[in-house]
Structure formats: structure tokens, C-alpha cells
What does this fold into?
Amino acid sequence: MSKHDRWNTLLELLAASGKLEVEEAAATLDVSAATIRRDLDELAAQQLLVRTRGGAVAHGVSYELPLRYKSTRRAPEKRRIAETAADLVAPGEVVGLNGGTTTTEVARALALRFASGRAEAPGAVLAAPALTVVTNALNIAGELAVRPQIKIVTTGGVARPQTYELVGPLTVGVLNEVVLDAVVLGVDGIDPELGVMAHQEDEASISRLFTERASRVVVVTDSSKMGRRAFARICGLDRIDLLVTDTDITPEAVAQLTEAGVKVLAV
It folds into this structure.
């Protein structure tokens, strides 16, 4: 197992339980305790965990993996969800995307769907964009900026290293000046009573503003987020028009969401 794979596994184990013991982690990964100690020391140096005697604990109550470590989790499900969500976007629409692994996959699916845009001759009047994407995610903006058929609008703000999302008053200022046909939101938790949630309050407030600026709200997330609560509330289920998830969602969860007025599309 490579170091990257070990780190990814260690961080996922930490996200699930909140703490790690060196000997237990060594047995799980089938490596020496000395290797695990070195890995934990290096992860602590990157401020991805807090080192303790005999192991490590997660930062704070609500632990959030950096985006680069979450990208491989439930990847096939996320791609199916993203392709379905992208198919719901009509040509010429203005679509908002917040940050996250699933919305990143949505951005890639949109790029493929609208890949038939024509290159314009030098000096020619540019045609209307096939799609306009408004995002506060630096990685999404970077991936779509090379697509000439897609107009990219990025918010200002302060970048969060875990998710590459821009937050703060500058972000709010830009979003207050735009009107969206739709927003596609990635979330960290969905609760039938509390609604949709994020780990960080600053990201939650920006996602909430996205919903306020959009005519329709589409939430994209795999079924592991169902029934899970996170620290900061984005909005209630009454603001959500459609949830796109995978087929592992339980019938009980579908019934609760449907009763709340959310259409559920499991793919």
C-alpha cells in the first residue's frame, strides 16, 4: 500500500471514529506500528489531525476531510449522480455550484455535456455561452475556465484549504448581484427535521445564499449523508426541489423526503 493510500485510509478511519490507536491502525492496514507513527506525525504536521500518545484524534467535534482525500470515496456513485444532475441543466441556463467532491463531478459532467461549443475566429463577435456557471469553488473554476463554451463567474472571498471554497463578505457581495436559474448543492448531511447541513458555518451561509438566488435548488449527495447531521444548517427541506442520490437510499428516507416536498431521484 502506497503512502497516499495509507493516509487516505487513516483519515477515513479517523473521520468515522474520531480517534485512532497506533496498534489497531497497524493491524488494519497490515503495516508496522513504526510506519503508522510516521504517518500520523506527518499528517499532524499538515494539521490534518492531532497527535496523541499512542495514536491521534480528529480536530474538533465535526471532522472534515480535505477535498483531496475525499475524492476517492464512493466515486462511482458520485459520477452517476453528477451525470444525472448535469442532464437536468438546459442550454443557456445560469447554474450555481458550491464546492465539494460531488459538485466537482457535476462540473466535469457539464463540461462534457456542453463540449460542442464552437471556437470563434479572431475578432469575431462571441456567441452566447452554452452555459454560465457561478461558483465559489476555486478547483471548479479552474477546471471549467479552459472550456470556451462555458462562461465562468467566480466569487471573491477567502479560500478555505480543505474544500477550495471562497467564503466571506466578498463572496456575499458577488452572489447578491446575480440571479441563478438553478443551484446544484453538495452537502455534508441531510436530516428530515433540520434540512441540509455543512460542516463549516461560513460555507453553510454561502450555500444558503446560493439557494436564495436560485429559481430551483438541486441537492447532489450519496446516500451515506442521509440522516447525518453536521454543525451548520444551510436550509430546510422546504427550499429543496430535487435530491439526486444513489440507489442505496432507504425507502424510509425517500418517504420522509417526499413527504417534505422533495422529489428524490435515485441513480
Summary: Confidence is low (pLDDT under 50) at residues 117-125.
